[in-house]
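Suppose you are handed a protein chain with no further information: no name, no annotation, nothing but its sequence. What can you learn? This example shows the usual starting point.
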Amino acid sequence: MLANIFKKKNTVGIVETEMSFMEHIDSLRKHLFRAALYIIVVMFIVFLQKSYVFDTIILGPTKPDFFTYRFLCSLADFMCFEPAKFEIYTRELGEQLTVHLEVSFYLGLIVAFPLVFREFWLFIKPGLYTKEQMVTKGIVFVCTTLFLSGVLFGYFFIAPFSISFLASYDVSAQVKESVQLSSMVDIMLMFTMLTGLVFELPVVVYFLAKLGIMGPVFMRTYRRHAIVIITIIAAIITPPDVVSMTIVTIPLCLLYELSIYVAARVYPKDEIV
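A reasonable first move is to predict its three-dimensional structure. Written in structure tokens, the prediction is:
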């Protein structure tokens, strides 16, 4: 399929013209330019909203009135959670500016992701046959929805608990906890971005199943192993309580089950044993 990117096809899937290498590079350059432009525009807007971005979004999970804590507390009293208290500092000259640029870039990437991925798909799509284009119809919407859902889940549920747990963990009462701004931001971005990518699992499984590489039988066989791994990861990144671990574990397990369903729908029937 990827080898066909160099070729343009008509509506019935017959090759009309074959793009030269330079035409291919020129097309890629245009899509990359537009994708970069989207990110830069959003990044610039985010950069100007410094107070809101840092006081509300970045430092939000460190405050007791953060949405996640209020939501859990509204469900039951035993689910009320008090985030760890710690001092945030900067150590290097210009660190705040560097962090500001880093946060602006990643927020720009997240917000502009639908447009960025659309440019990527417009570059790939001409190399597909009509049948392949029909099968992948709506992929921009699906990938965007999954990615943004993962980012929101990581921001509201994984990052707050992880930061609070890491900040409150101590080896001695003599050691005072002070967190460097760049360190906290890196942890938050890591969990939110990684969770966004993890939520793309059904899409990855879709293509692997379509190619006959990974099928539903394999995923069902190793379901228990996957659940154990998910549970261990949830136990590591959340505070030592069952409620927090369950909140993180259940969505990831449901994501795995969704991937099995996707694999069962598209995996070649004659290869299922």
